[in-house]
C-alpha cells in the first residue's frame, strides 16, 4: 500500500500554515542545501549546470555501479541531501548516488512523468518537498527517502502534500493541466519559493514550498501583448529576478519579474530583426547576467544574447553557424554553447563553443565525432561544467572536453544489443549530474554511477 506522511497531511498543513502566518517560525529551512546537491533541472535556479569544485579524471571514468531496467525514457536525475531521484519509464530510483543502493519504486499511471522534478527545503517538514510537474499543475510530495513504498499508483496522491496551478492550491490535483512540460519551463526552487509558469493561463507564479500557498501570480500578457506561450524560466538570485522567455506569436521576448513581489521589472525586446525562439534549454542566468539563445529566420545560425537581469538592458550578441541549438552552461568567465552543424552527410555533428562572458567573443570551437542520439523520444541533452571538464551527452555516450581549450579528453560508452543482432553504443539520455566527484547518468536501459 502507498503510505502517506505522518502525521496526517491536513493536520500538518493546518499547523504549519498557522505558524507561518503568525510569523513565529524562525528555524532554518530543512534540509539545507549542500554543495553536492543538484536540486533541479539545470542544477540551480539559474540553470547554469556548473559544479565548480568537482574533480573529474582527465583520462576516463569507470563504472562505480549501474542499475539496468527494461525500458528507458529517462527524466533528468536530481540529487538532494545525499539521495538521488531518477525517473524512467518503469519507476523512480531513490538511491545513494555513491553506491547506487536503494529502491526502484514501481510507478503506475502518471506519477512523475510530466517533466523534470525539483527538490525544495521546507520549515514544516524535516525531509523537504519533491516538486513534480504535470503540465500546468504541480504537485509537492513527501520525500522521506526511507519510506518510499514498493509501488506508487496514479499520481501518487497519498504522498502528495499539496497541489497548485499557480492560481489555486489544494490537497487534490487542481486546474486542468496534464501531460509533459517543456524541460526549460520546469519549476525552479529559490529559497522557500517554488516558481513556475502556466501555459494555459500564460502566467508566472510563486508558491510556498511548505504548503503550496500562492505568493504571487503574474499575467505575462501585461508585459507582452500577444503571448503565445511561456518557453522557459530561470531565476537570477543575485538580483532576485525571475526571467521568463515567451513566444510572442513567432518572435522571442523575455520578461523580468521581482521574485519577492511578483511585479514587473522589465520586458526585453530585440533591436532589428526579431529572433526566433531556440528549440530547448535556451536560458541561463548568473551573477546579474542573463544568457538566451535564439535562432535566425533562415534557421542556419544560433544567436547567443546577453542582457542585464536587473534592468533588461541589452549587452552583447554572438552569432555562429548551427543547424540546431542543444543547450548552454555558464561558469564564472565563460558561456558554453552546444549545437549541431550540418556535416553534409545523413546526420548532424556536435559543435561546442566557449564564449567569454565579458565581451561575447568566441574563445574556442570544437566539433565532436558524434551526434545527438535518439532514445525513445528523449534527444539532445545540455552540457555540464564540472571542474575542468565540459561534459556532453551524445548518441555515442558521454564526452568530456577540456573546458579551457576544447581538447577531447575521453568518451564513456557501453554497447547494447540491437533487434537485428548487432551492437550499438548506448545513448547518453540525461544531462550528466555531478555530485561528490561522481557522475549520475541515464543511458539506454541503464542508470550509471561513474567515477
UniProtKB/TrEMBL annotation:
Q: Check the record and name the SMART domains matching this protein.
A: PQQ
Start and end residues of each Pyrrolo-quinoline quinone repeat domain: 160-301, 306-442
Q: Which InterPro entries match?
A: PQQ_b-propeller_rpt, PQQ_rpt_dom, Quinoprotein_ADH-like_sf, TAT_signal, WD40/YVTN_repeat-like_dom_sf
Its signal peptide is none
Pfam family of the protein (one): PQQ_2
**What is the protein name for this chain?**
Pyrrolo-quinoline quinone repeat domain-containing protein
Organism from which the protein derives: Halovivax asiaticus JCM 14624
Source taxonomy lineage?
A: Archaea, Methanobacteriati, Methanobacteriota, Stenosarchaea group, Halobacteria
